[in-house]
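step 4 of 6: structure.
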Amino acid sequence: MKPHSRRTFIKTGAVATAGLTLADYAFAAPPAEQLALAGGPKTVNVPTARFAALTKWPRYGEAEKKAVCDLLDNNKYYQELPLFEKEWQEYTQSPFVKAHMNGSSALTSMYFALDLPPGSEIMVPSYTFVTASLAMRFFDCVPIFVDIDPHTATFDLEDAKRKLTPRTRAVEVMHSWGLPCQMDTIGVWAREKGLILLEDAAHAHGASMQGRKMGTWGTMGIFSFQTSKVMPCIEGGMGMYQQREHYERAAAFGEYTDPVKFPKDSPIRAYEGTGFGQKYRMHPLAAALGRQQLKGLDRLNALVEKNVKALNQHLTQLEGVTEPVCRPDQQRVYYHRNMLFVDFKKLGFTRDALLKALRAEGVDVNFWDYPEQHKLKIYSEAKWWHHPPAIPASMPGNAYVNANHIFLPLFYEEAPDVIEQYVKAFQKVWSHRKELA
Ligand SMILES: Cc1ncc(COP(=O)(O)O)c(C=O)c1O
């Protein structure tokens, strides 16, 4: 008897006659080809140079080279900073912005601007970058570590509700891998509890929710333009402020020449020449890069999204594979790589086995466990804190996401053929999944 293809098998009703359900069929059908791991043919065959071109990051071109060289030639270095700030402000529609030397200095300035009494608690995800939760200690604030939602890898509001104390003053969310947090519900709760909402948008350049750009939902927020980020300028950051008072404090913290630019009634104007003891302004060459990168940001974000969707629409058909949930009113971007959740317990094989099989097929796949802040030495040593943070016993959301994700590459050029090969490689591995177990 001629073997059925999957399509004819379903079409002819052979599923029913064989007494199998569709779910059984995946196991019953003989795998088309041997896994590459077991000596079969490799599915993905993309020349190394092409793959390198598709995935190259960061992407600086002639416009960036010219901008940098022009700036070196014209000596008007510092004019570049207000120009970049103006363009970023217009793009994000933020009332006030300030260019900083990196995202970390923007965070530190933001904590200074908050001006909270010693011992104030600020909720932050433990699944974040170290400076987001550590820089507050310079101002005697205490991180309260909040879990992430395993469906999104972003801020878990229910966990925040459990951890609220009378000392909590602010809540800082992080749009992990470019996916916006649920800013509407978090915002409503924060307002109800009298908490200041802060936004770490270091991963989310160009992302928006309900038409409003990330970085403008919080009272204050930050971006990073570090090399790996969605809009890179080697090193750089931006502070985002809804209120003039916060902007002036944050800007003057790291820029002693800023106060004179503030209106006459500003209480910060008197600090011209001193600022508040730091020097955090952005490097003008970074601003020159940032201005050029901003011009191509939306186009590149859209292309990356198109490629991710073309791939994920097939991969999420496979059993146990899902992508972080993005609401219809959220426009996400993709930072670093394409994160997929794989339910290894349900599937009965390990991530190690999956990676080996996919890599043998030629798929560029890896994982990266975000270092959970609450487990790091510095938070548990009393000597670094006047008000030591509480260390949570467990963070099930972090643990699940770290153990059950894989990362696939982002393609920054048209790549329908490569995407097709990736889909085939996954389908082949899934048809052999019993062997992986
Ligand atoms: C979530 C998050 N916040 C803040 C930062 C700090 O940015 P920067 O590296 O520009 O100091 C980073 C950088 O990796 C980050 O990933």
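step 5 of 6: annotate
 - The domain at 6-56+296-436 is CATH 3.90.1150.10 (Aspartate Aminotransferase, domain 1).
 - The first helix runs from residue 6 to 11.
step 6 of 6: archive
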